[in-house]
Amino acid sequence: MQYVDVTGSLVSKVLRYDHVIAQALVAPSPGNYSIAGNLLTMPDAGNYWIRFTQTNGYQVMPTYGYLPNTPWYPRVRFGLLPPPAEWSSQLFVYTVPYMLGTYVTGTVLDTHMIQFERPNLYNDPSHLPDILIFDEDNNFKYALDGYVQIGPVKADDPPYLKGTVYNWQRGQITSLDLTYARVDVTVELDPTDIVWGFYTYAEPDVIYTNFDINPVTNPIAKNSILNMYVKFTDITPGQNIYHQLLDSGGNVIAGQTDDPFPGEGSPVVFAQIMIGSSVSETNFTFTDVRVRGGGLAPAYQGIPQAVNFWDIGYWDGRPYPIAGAVVVYLPYSILNVLSRSDIEGRVSASLPMGAMPVIRYLDTNGQEWV
Predict the structure, then answer these.
(1) Following CA atoms 78, 79, 80, 86 in sequence, which dihedral angle do they give, to the nearest 10 degrees?
(2) 84 confidence band (pLDDT: 50, 70, 90)
(3) Whose CA, among 65, 106, 186, 246, lies 20 to 30 Å from 145?
(4) The pTM is what?
(5) Strand pairing partners for 108?
């Protein structure tokens, strides 16, 4: 909100909503309210304004940043007891589900600050997050032990080392932001560092572990569609969220569901997860398998990929351009969008080295043009 004060100065203010009453831990009493099912109980018959802080209804949230060779589970959120945005100012409710997060992805914000992916850390002053830090090439840098000595040293205190794989250090964490999962450390960090955290945090969503959507650890998930749906029946009252796996064409894959009675009830699909696979330039390793004079180097002649290799080129590696040709037919209307030289460049970039493209254009009558 902006306004001009009596002195003629432009003043900017951020609107803030203060809680009039807090939520009761057990039963409502003067000064707080309670929610039981769909019933909201207020302490008196006064006038109140209710502000909703998030979208209600079932929705699927992105998965956390797990390691590539571990299962990936979607998160399901629905507004039964949605966590308020101002959680830190609310009364503590002991039933909030705390979970142990392992290999939680961390991002370097500054030379001494890390922000982890999963917020709302459990407030345990005697044990802060344990942190592993590697450089961008996965070389080990630091292992920070989150244990904090409170009071005099006792015989039953945890041992100094968590293990012998890493050289764990204590006393390297200087401050902690529980709400945003930010940690200040004394060690020097680089923006390209790879950081993993181990700590307990409040999980507001349902971690749906009935289906692994990682195509590496669950190959049947690759190039498929996962339907997430809710169904209310008397047969399975303890579970209402289910999944059904479809192939890339939208056809149901038999047996790939956790619904014991898929033909009963009225399922309502609230999300679809498209599962594919992708690679980048960092996923490729280049190896020169040539031998001077032509042919495949002896060390690589027995590998399975050898049957697909073409020996096209001179001894110095220059390609021989007349080794093969391929005819490419395209609709004539594409010339209204791209020039012939542009099309030739795009086609050549998609062909193996040494292959010559022959491009022909077909009009709506089937007539061939060059």
Answers:
(1) 120
(2) very low
(3) 65
(4) 0.55
(5) 114
